[in-house]
Amino acid sequence: IENLTISGGNFTKDGLMQFADNLAIAGAGLKSIHIDLSAPKMTPSDALGALQHFVEVNAPTLERISCGREAPYAPAERRAFTKGSNRLFDLIKLCTGLKVLDLTNCGEDARLPLFDLQRALPHLEELKLNHFGGEPGWRVVGRISPDFEETCWRNLRVLEVAVSLETTSVGHRYGNSNVDGETLFCILFNSIECLEVLDVTGCTHLGDWRDTIWDRLPFNLRTLRCARTPLADDGAVRHILSHLCPALEELELASVGANAQHITDEAFTPFTPGSGPPLALTTLRIPGSAVSEASVRLLCDDVAADARFPRLRSLDLASCRALVGRAHV
After folding, report:
1. Shortest CA distance to 194 belongs to which of 212, 159, 220?
2. Which residues of the chain have pLDDT under 50?
3. How far apart are CA 204 and CA 189, in angstroms?
């Protein structure tokens, strides 16, 4: 057995602990472990304890660790993660070959020992922290070391740090984001050129898009999700498509509860046919924007030999106020 997923069922903490020990005795050496903290027969603390034990006995071989999931965890499950996170992170730091760490939707007001993790996990390729820390968000703990440039991640391909989103009786409510330009810079410092997926949805403290971190966005970036950030405006979009990300295939400027209200025709007017090389963009999401029929025609033009968006196949224009009842593309 190399890959193990435990979710639902009638598992108990003692049973899982014994299972982990038996696998270790048999020399299985897990490469991937995922445990859902929602378990009918276990408390969230017991489920986290079982995950910790699997990590501890398989540290030399683990390449993927996950207790994250797309569906939100209950408050008790989030609090249990935060309470036991120090020990979990200490054990994760033993997994020197780790490539994927997925903590999506885990924790409540969580702390991330970023610099210790960078030093301990030099081969990490995917860090998934969407909705991490719940409504209060998460913070980096620890101090940057003098040898940071040598110990920071160099192979990070996927970074997801979107804020939490709660569905309420009156709509959607975003949580708090403590991710600012400095935090993002520290995570991406030596991985900018190999980054392929970046999700910063709801990170309102990133600052102006012309800050240093954005001037160093990678040429290899394929997916950028940046709704409800300073990147979701006309000037930023023009700069991203024209200069920073020629390989970009998916651009999401709006999401549930956050329309692309700062996107107008000005974002796309420079991209008329013949104004430059064809772009790689295949998916564009701008619901709630103020683009007009002229921009839609420009985006959908794949007939002209010198069209700028010949590969665009998915275009989300839901609730675009300038198109209602009058668009004929």
Report:
1. 220
2. 328
3. 20
